[in-house]
Amino acid sequence: MGRILIIDDDVQVCETIQSLIVRSGHEGDYAQTLSRGMDKVETGIFDLVFLDISLPDGNGLDFLSRIKESSGQPEVIILTGKGDDDGAELAIQGGAWDFLVKPSSIKQISLSMSRALAFHAEKKNRAQLVALNLDDIVGKSPEIKSCYDLIAHASGSDANVLITGETGTGKELFARTIHDNSRRAKNNFVVVDCASLTENLVESTLFGHKKGSFTGAQADHKGLIHLADKGTLVLDEVGEMSLSVQKSFLRVLQERTYRPVGENKEFKSDFRLIAATNRDLEAMVAKGEFRQDLLYRIQTIHIILPPLRSRSGDIRELTDFYLRRLRTQYGVPPKVANSDFYDVLDNYEWPGNVRQLFNVVEQAFVASGSGNTIYAMHLSDNLRIKMAKSNLKKTESSLSAGSDSLDENLAQEAGKNDGSIESTVSAAASDLFSSELPSLKIFKGLAEKKYLEELLRRYHGEISVILDVSGLSRSHFYALLKKYEISY
Protein backbone atom coordinates (compact mmCIF):
# COMPACT_ATOMS: atom_id res chain seq x y z
CA MET A 1 0.00 0.00 0.00
CA GLY A 2 1.32 3.42 -0.96
CA ARG A 3 0.82 6.81 0.69
CA ILE A 4 -0.23 9.47 -1.79
CA LEU A 5 -0.72 13.24 -1.41
CA ILE A 6 -2.64 15.53 -3.77
CA ILE A 7 -1.77 19.24 -3.81
CA ASP A 8 -4.42 20.97 -5.94
CA ASP A 9 -6.80 23.90 -5.36
CA ASP A 10 -9.60 22.21 -7.31
CA VAL A 11 -11.81 20.35 -4.81
CA GLN A 12 -13.32 18.13 -7.50
CA VAL A 13 -9.87 17.04 -8.72
CA CYS A 14 -8.77 16.26 -5.16
CA GLU A 15 -11.87 14.22 -4.39
CA THR A 16 -11.78 12.34 -7.70
CA ILE A 17 -8.14 11.32 -7.40
CA GLN A 18 -8.50 10.49 -3.70
CA SER A 19 -11.42 8.21 -4.52
CA LEU A 20 -9.28 6.49 -7.16
CA ILE A 21 -6.45 6.13 -4.64
CA VAL A 22 -8.69 4.50 -2.04
CA ARG A 23 -10.28 2.13 -4.61
CA SER A 24 -6.77 1.07 -5.63
CA GLY A 25 -5.99 0.05 -2.06
CA HIS A 26 -3.74 2.99 -1.18
CA GLU A 27 -3.90 5.73 1.43
CA GLY A 28 -4.62 9.27 0.23
CA ASP A 29 -4.59 12.82 1.57
CA TYR A 30 -4.90 16.24 -0.06
CA ALA A 31 -4.18 19.94 0.42
CA GLN A 32 -5.52 22.90 -1.54
CA THR A 33 -2.58 25.28 -1.04
CA LEU A 34 1.17 24.95 -1.36
CA SER A 35 1.76 25.97 2.25
CA ARG A 36 -0.56 23.27 3.62
CA GLY A 37 0.77 20.75 1.13
CA MET A 38 4.36 21.44 2.15
CA ASP A 39 3.41 21.12 5.82
CA LYS A 40 2.07 17.63 5.08
CA VAL A 41 5.10 16.69 2.95
CA GLU A 42 7.58 17.79 5.61
CA THR A 43 5.79 16.15 8.53
CA GLY A 44 4.76 12.91 6.85
CA ILE A 45 6.20 10.26 4.54
CA PHE A 46 4.66 9.87 1.08
CA ASP A 47 5.46 7.62 -1.85
CA LEU A 48 3.77 9.79 -4.48
CA VAL A 49 2.61 13.41 -4.76
CA PHE A 50 0.20 14.78 -7.36
CA LEU A 51 1.25 18.44 -7.71
CA ASP A 52 -0.66 21.24 -9.43
CA ILE A 53 1.39 24.05 -11.00
CA SER A 54 -0.94 27.04 -10.55
CA LEU A 55 -1.88 27.27 -6.89
CA PRO A 56 -3.27 30.25 -4.92
CA ASP A 57 -0.01 30.81 -3.03
CA GLY A 58 2.61 29.93 -5.63
CA ASN A 59 3.91 27.84 -8.51
CA GLY A 60 4.16 24.12 -7.77
CA LEU A 61 7.29 23.72 -9.91
CA ASP A 62 9.19 26.01 -7.51
CA PHE A 63 8.66 23.41 -4.76
CA LEU A 64 9.35 20.29 -6.84
CA SER A 65 12.91 19.77 -5.58
CA ARG A 66 11.88 20.28 -1.92
CA ILE A 67 9.14 17.68 -2.29
CA LYS A 68 11.50 15.15 -3.89
CA GLU A 69 14.10 15.76 -1.16
CA SER A 70 11.60 15.30 1.71
CA SER A 71 11.89 12.31 4.02
CA GLY A 72 9.87 9.93 1.83
CA GLN A 73 11.61 11.07 -1.37
CA PRO A 74 8.31 10.63 -3.23
CA GLU A 75 7.77 10.48 -6.97
CA VAL A 76 5.91 13.53 -8.30
CA ILE A 77 3.22 13.64 -10.99
CA ILE A 78 2.57 17.18 -12.24
CA LEU A 79 -1.04 18.25 -12.84
CA THR A 80 -1.75 21.35 -14.90
CA GLY A 81 -4.71 23.00 -16.55
CA LYS A 82 -2.63 24.19 -19.49
CA GLY A 83 -0.26 22.23 -21.68
CA ASP A 84 3.06 24.11 -21.55
CA ASP A 85 6.17 22.83 -23.33
CA ASP A 86 8.50 24.88 -21.13
CA GLY A 87 6.69 23.74 -17.97
CA ALA A 88 6.90 20.11 -19.05
CA GLU A 89 10.63 20.49 -19.73
CA LEU A 90 11.26 22.09 -16.32
CA ALA A 91 9.21 19.40 -14.60
CA ILE A 92 11.02 16.50 -16.25
CA GLN A 93 14.41 18.12 -15.64
CA GLY A 94 13.41 18.56 -12.00
CA GLY A 95 12.74 14.84 -11.66
CA ALA A 96 8.96 14.66 -12.11
CA TRP A 97 7.66 11.21 -12.96
CA ASP A 98 4.93 12.42 -15.35
CA PHE A 99 3.28 15.60 -16.65
CA LEU A 100 -0.53 15.35 -16.95
CA VAL A 101 -2.82 17.97 -18.45
CA LYS A 102 -6.29 18.40 -16.95
CA PRO A 103 -8.72 16.94 -17.58
CA SER A 104 -6.91 13.61 -17.82
CA SER A 105 -8.86 10.37 -17.98
CA ILE A 106 -9.18 8.17 -14.90
CA LYS A 107 -7.44 5.42 -16.88
CA GLN A 108 -4.45 7.67 -17.63
CA ILE A 109 -4.16 8.90 -14.03
CA SER A 110 -4.47 5.34 -12.69
CA LEU A 111 -1.83 4.02 -15.08
CA SER A 112 0.64 6.80 -14.27
CA MET A 113 0.01 6.35 -10.53
CA SER A 114 0.55 2.58 -10.58
CA ARG A 115 3.74 2.87 -12.63
CA ALA A 116 5.14 5.61 -10.40
CA LEU A 117 4.42 3.58 -7.25
CA ALA A 118 6.02 0.47 -8.78
CA PHE A 119 9.12 2.45 -9.71
CA HIS A 120 9.28 4.00 -6.24
CA ALA A 121 9.03 0.59 -4.55
CA GLU A 122 11.77 -0.84 -6.77
CA LYS A 123 13.97 2.19 -6.10
CA LYS A 124 13.60 1.76 -2.33
CA ASN A 125 14.41 -1.94 -2.55
CA ARG A 126 17.45 -1.23 -4.71
CA ALA A 127 18.68 1.38 -2.27
CA GLN A 128 18.44 -1.16 0.55
CA LEU A 129 20.26 -3.85 -1.45
CA VAL A 130 23.00 -1.72 -3.01
CA ALA A 131 25.39 0.01 -0.62
CA LEU A 132 27.29 2.39 -2.86
CA ASN A 133 30.78 3.52 -2.00
CA LEU A 134 30.62 7.28 -2.54
CA ASP A 135 33.61 8.16 -0.36
CA ASP A 136 35.22 10.40 -2.99
CA ILE A 137 32.03 12.14 -4.14
CA VAL A 138 31.15 15.06 -1.88
CA GLY A 139 27.84 16.89 -1.77
CA LYS A 140 24.32 16.78 -0.41
CA SER A 141 22.67 19.40 -2.62
CA PRO A 142 19.59 18.23 -4.57
CA GLU A 143 21.48 18.88 -7.81
CA ILE A 144 24.27 16.40 -7.06
CA LYS A 145 22.10 13.90 -5.17
CA SER A 146 19.95 13.50 -8.27
CA CYS A 147 23.02 11.86 -9.88
CA TYR A 148 23.36 9.23 -7.14
CA ASP A 149 20.43 7.10 -8.32
CA LEU A 150 21.94 7.06 -11.81
CA ILE A 151 25.27 5.93 -10.35
CA ALA A 152 23.49 3.07 -8.58
CA HIS A 153 21.65 2.17 -11.77
CA ALA A 154 24.85 2.25 -13.84
CA SER A 155 26.85 0.32 -11.24
CA GLY A 156 24.35 -2.52 -11.25
CA SER A 157 24.50 -3.07 -15.01
CA ASP A 158 26.91 -3.28 -17.93
CA ALA A 159 25.06 -0.65 -19.98
CA ASN A 160 27.04 2.02 -21.81
CA VAL A 161 27.19 5.30 -19.88
CA LEU A 162 27.61 8.87 -21.13
CA ILE A 163 28.71 11.44 -18.54
CA THR A 164 28.42 15.08 -19.61
CA GLY A 165 29.29 18.26 -17.78
CA GLU A 166 31.49 21.31 -17.85
CA THR A 167 35.25 21.06 -17.42
CA GLY A 168 36.14 20.39 -13.80
CA THR A 169 32.81 18.91 -12.67
CA GLY A 170 34.31 15.48 -11.92
CA LYS A 171 33.43 13.33 -14.92
CA GLU A 172 36.37 10.93 -14.51
CA LEU A 173 35.69 10.68 -10.77
CA PHE A 174 32.09 9.62 -11.49
CA ALA A 175 33.32 7.11 -14.08
CA ARG A 176 35.75 5.66 -11.52
CA THR A 177 32.98 5.48 -8.90
CA ILE A 178 30.73 3.54 -11.28
CA HIS A 179 33.59 1.12 -12.02
CA ASP A 180 34.48 0.67 -8.34
CA ASN A 181 30.86 -0.17 -7.49
CA SER A 182 30.37 -2.58 -10.39
CA ARG A 183 31.10 -6.28 -10.77
CA ARG A 184 34.16 -5.27 -12.83
CA ALA A 185 35.82 -3.42 -9.93
CA LYS A 186 38.68 -5.94 -9.61
CA ASN A 187 39.66 -5.54 -13.27
CA ASN A 188 41.32 -2.72 -15.20
CA PHE A 189 40.00 0.84 -15.39
CA VAL A 190 41.44 2.13 -18.67
CA VAL A 191 41.14 5.79 -19.67
CA VAL A 192 41.56 6.87 -23.30
CA ASP A 193 42.29 10.56 -23.89
CA CYS A 194 40.41 11.02 -27.17
CA ALA A 195 41.84 14.52 -27.67
CA SER A 196 45.32 13.01 -28.02
CA LEU A 197 44.37 10.27 -30.51
CA THR A 198 46.05 11.20 -33.80
CA GLU A 199 44.97 9.67 -37.10
CA ASN A 200 48.22 7.75 -37.60
CA LEU A 201 48.42 6.36 -34.05
CA VAL A 202 44.77 5.74 -33.17
CA GLU A 203 44.60 2.14 -34.38
CA SER A 204 47.86 1.20 -32.70
CA THR A 205 46.81 2.92 -29.46
CA LEU A 206 43.36 1.37 -29.30
CA PHE A 207 43.85 -1.99 -31.02
CA GLY A 208 47.61 -2.64 -30.59
CA HIS A 209 50.04 -3.84 -33.25
CA LYS A 210 52.31 -6.71 -34.20
CA LYS A 211 56.08 -6.45 -34.35
CA GLY A 212 57.24 -5.15 -37.71
CA SER A 213 53.77 -4.02 -38.82
CA PHE A 214 55.10 -0.51 -39.45
CA THR A 215 58.32 1.46 -39.07
CA GLY A 216 59.20 1.68 -35.40
CA ALA A 217 57.07 -1.32 -34.34
CA GLN A 218 59.96 -3.22 -32.72
CA ALA A 219 57.78 -5.43 -30.52
CA ASP A 220 54.19 -6.61 -30.15
CA HIS A 221 52.04 -3.98 -28.43
CA LYS A 222 48.77 -4.56 -26.57
CA GLY A 223 46.16 -1.88 -27.26
CA LEU A 224 43.96 -0.17 -24.67
CA ILE A 225 40.91 -2.17 -25.73
CA HIS A 226 42.79 -5.38 -24.91
CA LEU A 227 43.80 -3.98 -21.52
CA ALA A 228 40.16 -3.15 -20.77
CA ASP A 229 38.99 -6.76 -21.26
CA LYS A 230 36.69 -7.72 -18.34
CA GLY A 231 37.10 -4.16 -17.04
CA THR A 232 35.99 -0.63 -17.94
CA LEU A 233 37.06 1.47 -20.93
CA VAL A 234 36.62 5.23 -20.51
CA LEU A 235 36.57 7.45 -23.58
CA ASP A 236 37.49 10.79 -22.04
CA GLU A 237 36.45 13.83 -24.15
CA VAL A 238 34.75 11.57 -26.68
CA GLY A 239 33.55 14.69 -28.52
CA GLU A 240 37.12 15.25 -29.71
CA MET A 241 37.16 12.02 -31.75
CA SER A 242 37.50 12.57 -35.49
CA LEU A 243 34.77 11.12 -37.71
CA SER A 244 37.12 8.44 -39.07
CA VAL A 245 38.01 7.31 -35.54
CA GLN A 246 34.33 7.32 -34.61
CA LYS A 247 33.63 4.99 -37.53
CA SER A 248 36.40 2.60 -36.50
CA PHE A 249 35.29 2.53 -32.88
CA LEU A 250 31.58 2.08 -33.71
CA ARG A 251 32.25 -1.38 -35.15
CA VAL A 252 34.34 -2.34 -32.12
CA LEU A 253 31.55 -1.18 -29.84
CA GLN A 254 28.92 -3.16 -31.76
CA GLU A 255 30.88 -6.40 -32.10
CA ARG A 256 33.28 -6.13 -29.12
CA THR A 257 35.98 -7.38 -31.51
CA TYR A 258 39.13 -5.67 -32.79
CA ARG A 259 42.10 -6.40 -35.07
CA PRO A 260 45.60 -5.23 -34.08
CA VAL A 261 47.63 -3.50 -36.79
CA GLY A 262 49.48 -6.13 -38.83
CA GLU A 263 47.35 -9.00 -37.47
CA ASN A 264 45.24 -11.19 -39.78
CA LYS A 265 42.67 -12.27 -37.19
CA GLU A 266 40.29 -10.59 -34.78
CA PHE A 267 40.20 -10.76 -31.00
CA LYS A 268 37.38 -10.22 -28.52
CA SER A 269 37.35 -7.81 -25.59
CA ASP A 270 34.60 -7.83 -22.99
CA PHE A 271 34.87 -4.20 -21.92
CA ARG A 272 32.25 -1.93 -20.35
CA LEU A 273 32.14 1.52 -21.98
CA ILE A 274 31.87 4.87 -20.20
CA ALA A 275 32.19 8.00 -22.34
CA ALA A 276 32.67 11.53 -21.03
CA THR A 277 32.61 14.96 -22.63
CA ASN A 278 32.09 18.66 -21.95
CA ARG A 279 30.63 19.21 -25.42
CA ASP A 280 27.02 19.12 -26.64
CA LEU A 281 27.02 15.94 -28.71
CA GLU A 282 23.49 16.43 -30.02
CA ALA A 283 24.49 19.82 -31.41
CA MET A 284 27.56 18.20 -32.95
CA VAL A 285 25.33 15.56 -34.57
CA ALA A 286 23.19 18.32 -36.08
CA LYS A 287 26.36 19.90 -37.55
CA GLY A 288 27.63 16.57 -38.88
CA GLU A 289 30.59 16.56 -36.47
CA PHE A 290 29.54 13.46 -34.52
CA ARG A 291 27.93 10.24 -35.70
CA GLN A 292 24.33 9.86 -34.59
CA ASP A 293 24.55 6.06 -34.52
CA LEU A 294 27.56 6.27 -32.17
CA LEU A 295 25.73 8.72 -29.89
CA TYR A 296 22.81 6.31 -29.62
CA ARG A 297 25.22 3.53 -28.65
CA ILE A 298 27.10 5.38 -25.92
CA GLN A 299 24.22 7.06 -24.06
CA THR A 300 22.18 4.12 -22.77
CA ILE A 301 22.51 5.79 -19.36
CA HIS A 302 23.12 9.54 -19.43
CA ILE A 303 24.46 11.32 -16.33
CA ILE A 304 24.54 15.13 -16.50
CA LEU A 305 26.82 16.62 -13.84
CA PRO A 306 25.72 20.04 -12.54
CA PRO A 307 28.20 22.95 -12.52
CA LEU A 308 29.41 24.09 -9.11
CA ARG A 309 27.54 27.41 -9.41
CA SER A 310 24.30 25.37 -9.41
CA ARG A 311 25.22 23.46 -6.25
CA SER A 312 26.58 26.27 -4.08
CA GLY A 313 25.26 24.53 -0.97
CA ASP A 314 28.09 22.00 -1.43
CA ILE A 315 30.95 24.51 -1.45
CA ARG A 316 31.59 24.38 2.31
CA GLU A 317 31.49 20.57 2.39
CA LEU A 318 33.81 20.31 -0.62
CA THR A 319 36.22 22.78 0.98
CA ASP A 320 36.26 20.95 4.32
CA PHE A 321 36.78 17.63 2.52
CA TYR A 322 39.75 18.97 0.59
CA LEU A 323 41.28 20.67 3.66
CA ARG A 324 41.30 17.29 5.43
CA ARG A 325 42.99 15.72 2.42
CA LEU A 326 45.59 18.50 2.27
CA ARG A 327 46.36 18.13 5.96
CA THR A 328 47.20 14.47 5.38
CA GLN A 329 49.13 15.22 2.20
CA TYR A 330 51.28 17.94 3.80
CA GLY A 331 51.51 16.25 7.21
CA VAL A 332 50.51 19.35 9.20
CA PRO A 333 48.04 20.01 12.04
CA PRO A 334 44.39 20.64 11.08
CA LYS A 335 43.48 23.97 9.50
CA VAL A 336 40.01 25.54 9.51
CA ALA A 337 38.58 28.16 7.18
CA ASN A 338 37.23 31.41 8.62
CA SER A 339 33.69 32.50 7.77
CA ASP A 340 34.99 35.34 5.56
CA PHE A 341 36.80 32.73 3.45
CA TYR A 342 33.54 30.86 2.87
CA ASP A 343 31.70 34.11 2.14
CA VAL A 344 34.08 34.81 -0.74
CA LEU A 345 33.86 31.25 -2.07
CA ASP A 346 30.05 31.24 -1.89
CA ASN A 347 29.75 34.37 -4.03
CA TYR A 348 32.01 33.33 -6.91
CA GLU A 349 30.74 31.77 -10.15
CA TRP A 350 33.47 29.06 -10.37
CA PRO A 351 33.89 28.75 -14.14
CA GLY A 352 36.42 25.94 -13.52
CA ASN A 353 34.01 24.15 -11.16
CA VAL A 354 35.23 21.72 -8.47
CA ARG A 355 38.70 21.43 -9.98
CA GLN A 356 39.17 25.19 -9.72
CA LEU A 357 37.77 25.25 -6.17
CA PHE A 358 40.29 22.62 -5.05
CA ASN A 359 43.16 24.52 -6.67
CA VAL A 360 42.09 27.73 -4.92
CA VAL A 361 41.74 25.97 -1.56
CA GLU A 362 45.22 24.45 -1.89
CA GLN A 363 46.75 27.84 -2.77
CA ALA A 364 45.15 29.39 0.33
CA PHE A 365 46.21 26.39 2.44
CA VAL A 366 49.83 26.91 1.44
CA ALA A 367 49.61 30.71 1.79
CA SER A 368 48.37 30.36 5.40
CA GLY A 369 51.78 28.97 6.35
CA SER A 370 52.02 27.70 9.93
CA GLY A 371 48.72 29.28 10.96
CA ASN A 372 45.75 27.06 11.75
CA THR A 373 43.09 29.37 10.23
CA ILE A 374 42.61 30.23 6.57
CA TYR A 375 41.23 33.71 5.84
CA ALA A 376 40.02 35.41 2.67
CA MET A 377 43.29 37.35 2.66
CA HIS A 378 45.10 34.08 1.94
CA LEU A 379 43.48 33.98 -1.49
CA SER A 380 45.59 35.34 -4.34
CA ASP A 381 45.10 38.99 -5.29
CA ASN A 382 44.23 37.94 -8.82
CA LEU A 383 41.43 35.66 -7.65
CA ARG A 384 40.07 38.18 -5.15
CA ILE A 385 39.91 40.79 -7.91
CA LYS A 386 38.03 38.36 -10.18
CA MET A 387 35.62 37.50 -7.37
CA ALA A 388 35.04 41.16 -6.53
CA LYS A 389 34.27 41.96 -10.18
CA SER A 390 31.94 38.97 -10.37
CA ASN A 391 30.06 40.14 -7.28
CA LEU A 392 29.76 43.68 -8.68
CA LYS A 393 28.30 42.35 -11.92
CA LYS A 394 25.76 40.23 -10.01
CA THR A 395 24.76 43.22 -7.87
CA GLU A 396 24.38 45.50 -10.89
CA SER A 397 22.36 42.84 -12.71
CA SER A 398 20.12 42.34 -9.70
CA LEU A 399 19.48 46.09 -9.37
CA SER A 400 18.82 46.59 -13.09
CA ALA A 401 16.37 43.67 -13.13
CA GLY A 402 14.35 45.26 -10.32
CA SER A 403 13.13 48.77 -9.71
CA ASP A 404 14.96 51.92 -10.82
CA SER A 405 16.29 52.67 -7.37
CA LEU A 406 17.01 51.10 -4.02
CA ASP A 407 14.64 53.57 -2.35
CA GLU A 408 11.86 52.45 -4.66
CA ASN A 409 12.49 48.79 -3.78
CA LEU A 410 12.39 49.57 -0.09
CA ALA A 411 9.19 51.58 -0.49
CA GLN A 412 7.54 48.72 -2.36
CA GLU A 413 8.55 46.23 0.30
CA ALA A 414 7.25 48.51 3.03
CA GLY A 415 3.94 48.79 1.18
CA LYS A 416 3.68 45.03 0.77
CA ASN A 417 4.17 44.40 4.45
CA ASP A 418 2.01 47.32 5.71
CA GLY A 419 4.74 48.44 8.06
CA SER A 420 4.88 45.08 9.83
CA ILE A 421 8.59 44.57 9.12
CA GLU A 422 9.44 48.06 10.33
CA SER A 423 7.49 47.58 13.55
CA THR A 424 9.07 44.18 14.13
CA VAL A 425 12.57 45.55 13.68
CA SER A 426 11.82 48.52 15.93
CA ALA A 427 10.53 46.26 18.68
CA ALA A 428 13.54 43.96 18.43
CA ALA A 429 15.97 46.88 18.38
CA SER A 430 14.50 48.42 21.50
CA ASP A 431 15.32 45.22 23.41
CA LEU A 432 18.98 45.58 22.44
CA PHE A 433 19.43 49.12 23.72
CA SER A 434 20.81 49.39 27.24
CA SER A 435 20.97 52.56 29.31
CA GLU A 436 24.03 53.48 27.26
CA LEU A 437 24.10 52.97 23.52
CA PRO A 438 26.57 50.29 22.38
CA SER A 439 28.92 50.89 19.46
CA LEU A 440 27.43 50.28 16.02
CA LYS A 441 29.61 47.18 15.54
CA ILE A 442 28.42 45.64 18.84
CA PHE A 443 24.82 46.54 18.06
CA LYS A 444 24.99 44.87 14.64
CA GLY A 445 26.42 41.70 16.19
CA LEU A 446 23.71 41.58 18.86
CA ALA A 447 20.98 42.14 16.30
CA GLU A 448 22.37 39.45 13.99
CA LYS A 449 22.56 36.92 16.81
CA LYS A 450 19.02 37.70 17.94
CA TYR A 451 17.77 37.34 14.36
CA LEU A 452 19.39 33.89 14.03
CA GLU A 453 17.93 32.72 17.34
CA GLU A 454 14.48 33.89 16.27
CA LEU A 455 14.83 32.06 12.92
CA LEU A 456 15.62 28.81 14.72
CA ARG A 457 12.81 29.27 17.24
CA ARG A 458 10.14 30.31 14.78
CA TYR A 459 10.86 27.68 12.13
CA HIS A 460 11.79 24.87 14.55
CA GLY A 461 15.26 24.39 13.07
CA GLU A 462 13.94 23.49 9.58
CA ILE A 463 17.03 24.49 7.61
CA SER A 464 15.40 24.57 4.16
CA VAL A 465 12.69 26.95 5.39
CA ILE A 466 15.18 29.11 7.29
CA LEU A 467 17.35 29.52 4.18
CA ASP A 468 14.32 30.49 2.08
CA VAL A 469 13.16 33.08 4.61
CA SER A 470 16.56 34.58 5.44
CA GLY A 471 18.06 34.50 1.96
CA LEU A 472 21.27 33.06 3.43
CA SER A 473 23.29 30.35 1.73
CA ARG A 474 23.67 27.14 3.71
CA SER A 475 27.40 27.68 4.28
CA HIS A 476 26.90 31.31 5.39
CA PHE A 477 24.14 30.27 7.80
CA TYR A 478 26.33 27.61 9.45
CA ALA A 479 29.24 30.04 9.63
CA LEU A 480 27.06 32.56 11.49
CA LEU A 481 25.87 29.89 13.94
CA LYS A 482 29.50 29.03 14.64
CA LYS A 483 30.45 32.71 14.94
CA TYR A 484 27.82 33.37 17.62
CA GLU A 485 28.15 29.90 19.20
CA ILE A 486 24.47 29.12 18.64
CA SER A 487 23.51 25.46 18.90
CA TYR A 488 20.38 23.98 17.36
From TrEMBL:
Residue ranges of every copy of the Response regulatory domain listed in the record: 3-117
Lineage: Bacteria, Pseudomonadati, Thermodesulfobacteriota, Desulfovibrionia, Desulfovibrionales
Domain Sigma-54 factor interaction residues, every copy: 137-366
Organism: Desulfovibrio gilichinskyi
PROSITE patterns assigned: RESPONSE_REGULATORY, SIGMA54_INTERACT_1, SIGMA54_INTERACT_2, SIGMA54_INTERACT_3, SIGMA54_INTERACT_4
CDD domains referenced in this protein's UniProt entry, alphabetically: AAA (cd00009), REC (cd00156)
Gene Ontology biological process: phosphorelay signal transduction system; regulation of DNA-templated transcription
Pfam hit, one: Sigma54_activat
Name this polypeptide is given: Two-component system, NtrC family, response regulator
InterPro entries: AAA+_ATPase, AAA_lid_NorR, CheY-like_superfamily, P-loop_NTPase, Sig_transdc_resp-reg_receiver, Sigma_54_int, Sigma_54_int_dom_ATP-bd_1, Sigma_54_int_dom_ATP-bd_2
4-aspartylphosphate PTM sites in chain numbering: D52
Any one GO molecular-function label of the UniProt entry: DNA binding
Keywords: ATP-binding, DNA-binding, Nucleotide-binding, Phosphoprotein, Transcription, Transcription regulation
Top-rank taxon: Bacteria
